[in-house]
Amino acid sequence: MADDDANAREDVHEGELAEDAVEIPDDEVAAAIVEKFPGSRFHRSHGQPVVYVDRAVFADVATFLRDEQQFTMCVDVTATDHLLDGVRHAPPGVATERYEVIANYLSHVRNRRVRVICQVSAREPSVPSLTPVYPGANFAEREVFDFFGIDFTGHPELTRILMPDDWDGHPLRKDYPSARVPVTFKGDPQPR
Amino acid sequence: MPLDQIPHNFMTARLEDLVRWGRRNSVFPATFGLACCALEMMATGAAHYDLARFGMEVFRASPRQADLMIVAGRVSQKMAPVLRQVYDQMVEPKWVISMGVCASSGGMFNNYAIVQGVDQIVPVDVYVPGCPPGPETLMHGILTLHEQIRTGELLRRREASPTGGAAIQLDTAAAVPAGS
Amino acid sequence: MTEIRSDEEALEEQRLERQTSEGAQELQPRPRAQEVVITGGGMWPEADPLDDTMIINMGPQHPSTHGVLRLMMELDSEEVMRIKPVIGYLHTGMEKTAEELTYVQGATNVTRMDYAAPLSNELVFSMAVERLLDLDVPPRATWMRMMLVELIRMSSHLLFQATNGMDIGAVSMMLYGWREREEVLRYLEYITGLRMNHNFIRPGGVAADLPDGWQERALELCETVERGAAEYDALLSDNPIWRERTIGIGLITTDECLERSITGPILRSTGFAWDLRKAQPYLAYDDVEFDVMYGANGDVFDRYRLRLSEIFESIKIVRQCVEKMPAGDYRLQDKKLTPPPRARIDESMEALIHHFKLFTEGFKVPAGETYVAIESPRGEIGCYLVSDGTSKPVRLHIRGPSFYNLQSIEPMGTGSLVADAVAIVSSIDPIMGEVDR
Questions:
Q1: Do B132 and C197 touch (CB under 8 A)?
Q2: Which end of chain A is more exposed for a tag (fewer CB within 10 A), N or C?
Q3: pLDDT tens digit string along C326-381?
Q4: Distance between alpha carbon C69 and the CA centroid of its chain, in Å?
Q5: How far is C188 from chain A (nearest CA, A)?
Q6: Which residue of A has its CA nearest to B110?
Q7: Superfamily assignment of C103-436 in CATH?
């Protein structure tokens, strides 16, 4: 069954930069981040607070959250490749790039979560590492490097973690094929 | 006839039958549980679906002491050389059961990361389908293997393939393509 | 393609190889100069033989590592100086596969990640999809999901008791744990149709209604498991050999856990009573009574005892589900989301078309992203889902708790004995399916 989403699209949608459409943060942690790091944008995504920051301050936001906002744990660090998106979801005021790196934080004392997203371009795929701030991000950043090729500057040991060490390519990129083999059957005349 | 009423004190049998009887009633599996199928393999060895009644409850960790490798689970690209190494370390006679669809053909994961069928790496005797195969299915596979041992060739040697495994393998003693 | 390369380029290539190869990275802190470049997941190069330390490999095929986990250890006779987990031996490309499966098919893929507790994976995925659709499932579906997830928690902790017992030496625990687990799996087969990898909790609700007579069988099951778990308690908790082997072994503190993103029984064993079912309730957990179990010292014994107690708490919750299960729909009656009952297909053309469209094309989810987390038997399992308005996800990422929990091997294992390393890995209870995905 032919799918529309299988057609490759080369262009990345640019977000609108209309300043008056920017959302006002209604979450105090997000408000604190937006205040401390100008240029960040807040978005409420299905009830969850998300802040889109510039990638240069990605690790600084983590330090801010850990030291001043009591976010005890960085729950997850992951990335997305938006090369083939049907509709790109991005709040107004965010200049979208091909990759997004996402970090989820959890504060046990305040019992709240916040998500921080930064845009990473394909020409210069590199983000400051969160591992010096939250050592638990070590494996997660290695996984993002393994699958997307995004470099985390300051990571103590950025090597492949799930693929074999000598693997070529970054499998979760959208231009990396899933390498389906055609299914063969027992009575086929030629060998696999 | 009960043993104490046998008039003579020796029995004869064919050597081949004795060897086959010994081989099939004490097959020691090697622990090669990889993923979900490993849990069903452990269930087959547990008390409810007992493998001990076939003499198979001792899962040997060392491949040198094992006869049967039950490849239980999906084999990833990183694991494939390990699989081959463990198979090579096993001593003849040895058998391989490919348990589950991921080991038999790649299963539902037809992608870059999973070897599409462990028979690309090691020669397989019995394929057990299922995702995961329940303990009864695995036991059926094991009993099929016992049947193969009971009726098979004694001095079967697999043709050493230059690529280290074969999609189509020939049994040199019988010279019949396997799978027909 | 052969090119004549200058010495500089060859050196540059060697330098890059050294930077990216896993084995070679280990060399940097040590002052010894090494010429050998290691690729392909090889071993650490041998240390100076006069140093009396030995580098060995435990796994990936080993009876005592849960699944295909490889541990590189540097040993000074029996004592572990350095320990490092190497993973990826079960990497299945599930997140890439998920981008090619529709949301209807997504549960079949996700369920095979944490294969000891498959219904938790399905639940977190379904909750993420429902969050993106901004839908709530009917109450009966919610309570059914809760009961199923508690049953699978019981089954996973019984598996832990079995494998943990066997790894530490109480080999008969393997048979006892499986005896009770078989009962739970038989009941799950009665409800869902499968013993494992059920594909039962789907976006929109659950796949089928509860069969007749489920209440009596549930209560019988609860009694059986309670008796079994009490037996394990009597067998092990006061056993001096067990206590020698587990108390004081594998110590970890709360701060070490929090900074390493460790959740679940390991975090709770340090005395920090954080359970997402109480802290950020989902499903109907605020309508049932249960306690959060936590330990005191953060050692192997605490983790064993904690998981055993969680079995009793799960039994409590299942009993309350049996009492309070609401009547009603087991899934959202939204024709664009959930398939029609099979009998309707013969009667109605629309039902046939809906069935066809749902199982070939799936339903479309509006563009957005969300992160949903629940408490699986191993810790916080999360699903980060990005959609783009089509019927297949752009990105499905499962935050597997065991992936992060494995980072606790280093503080726990350094300075322990090799035999303790086995006990420690066993007490972390990793499932490599969700580590490697």
A1: yes
A2: N
A3: 999 888 888 888 888 888 888 888 888 888 888 888 899 999 999 999 999 999 99
A4: 14
A5: 31
A6: A180
A7: Cytochrome-c3 Hydrogenase, chain B (1.10.645.10)
